[in-house]
Design goal:
Strand order of the largest sheet: 4-3-5-2-11-10-12
CATH architecture of the largest domain: 4-Layer Sandwich
CATH topology of the largest domain: Glutamine Phosphoribosylpyrophosphate, subunit 1, domain 1
Helix content: 25-40%
Structural class: alpha+beta
CATH class of the largest domain: Alpha Beta
Number of domains: 2
Number of strands: 25
Distance between the termini: 44 Å
Mean pLDDT: 88
CATH superfamily of the largest domain: Aminohydrolase, N-terminal nucleophile (Ntn) domain
Amino acid sequence: MKSVVIDKRLDKVNEECGVFGIYRNDDIDIVSVTHDGLYGLQHRGQESVGITVIKDEEPYTLKDLGIVSTVLTEKALKKLPQGEMAVGHVRYTSTSYLDRAATQPLVMRYICGSLAIANNGAITNFAEIRNELEHGGAIFQSNSHAEIIGYMIATRRIECDTIEQAILKTMEVLKGAYSIVIGAPKKLIGVRDPHGFKPLCIGKLNNSYVLASESCAIDSIGGEFIRDVEPGEVVVIDDKGFHSYHSDKKKTSSLCLFEYVYFARPDSVVDGVNVNIARRRAGKLLYEENPVEADIVCGVPDSGLDAAQGYAEASGITYATAFIKNKYIGRTADAGGNDKKKKLLKMRLNVLKNIVEGKRIVIIDDSIVRGNTSAHIVKLLRDAGAKEIHMRISSPEFVYPCYFGIDLPSPENMISNRFSVDELRNEIGADSLSFLSIKGLHSIAEGCNIGLCDGCFSGHYNADVPKIIYEDKFAVKIKKV
């Protein structure tokens, strides 16, 4: 059995965060429930985690750098009271250092009480808003987008009769992607941006309402999924029940398609589409677009497995497990030092030589960003005696930046901007290489009840993007412009 350590975090697309909230209407342990809900969202962020409980309008917070199991220990959780509501957050940060002050939920006190804010997304006019606020005398403790959101809500709340009105006025100014859960003194609030870039859904646990980034978190606490929060919708839960408001800022809806390819857990349903089914459909379409003769089909754990099953079903080629992933290697990041490589997640894969030796193999992965992981995987299979290696990718080529909360390298560091598909095939050492088409990518989300964003693949965005100008010498390098 051959093995190699892959610094997969440097060579994968990474999500920003996961959010969770519960308003208690039953005799339940909301601290334990929020803990379990965050476990269900751990895949969306492994760098920090936190819970804020609101009891008698006062916030009590437990948060730190690390993952759920290391921060939210049984001993630590006992320090939190059983309140009327709770807000939870898991974070991934795209910066080269961990800003401890940005760990969420972010609790802010103002004239009308306190706000506990958990946010997933990226405000594209963050710099302009922050600059304006700072010139007005605002003082910030972090670089968190949640902090400017909270500041804007607080300043508008003074002018409005309700916090709902203040949030709707804030949405008139914010641009970009955000799915937010807010714990106010007497209300639990969920907010989804008018484009719907990031998922957010509603559930119930007995009579208690739940908000979460994905339905899998609702399932993990034994709750019932109700529906998705609509783009531009503000949902409010209080002692009078459930309320819904909509922003007047109508926009083209644009859920990130990569939720179906990689980010969301396969047992989630996102905006009407079962993620497992979407990934199996991706594998089927990969075969239809890029057939090849082979002996076995296998997937790269974990997000390539469902697509590999779909490819096998469509092709009639035997599905096999070629890789074993060591799930017990720690996922925490070292907060010290400036070398990002020392802080980032490493994944160990072992290849089963008896499965691949002498075989023609189709290997399915979800994406190629820098190419390092793909080259390692191909080498693993070669060293184990694979006769042929045909790599199939269940998404198109990454060639454009994302401005809406997905951590992609700059375009010049995306390998598909430096090589043609055949050159890239040679670079990673495969016998053949093919990507799912953009048309095929849209097809995997059949039945989605909102619009979709493919900007990082096509260069076409349904929302305003920051005015970043690349040098002319690089612009000519980007394919398909």
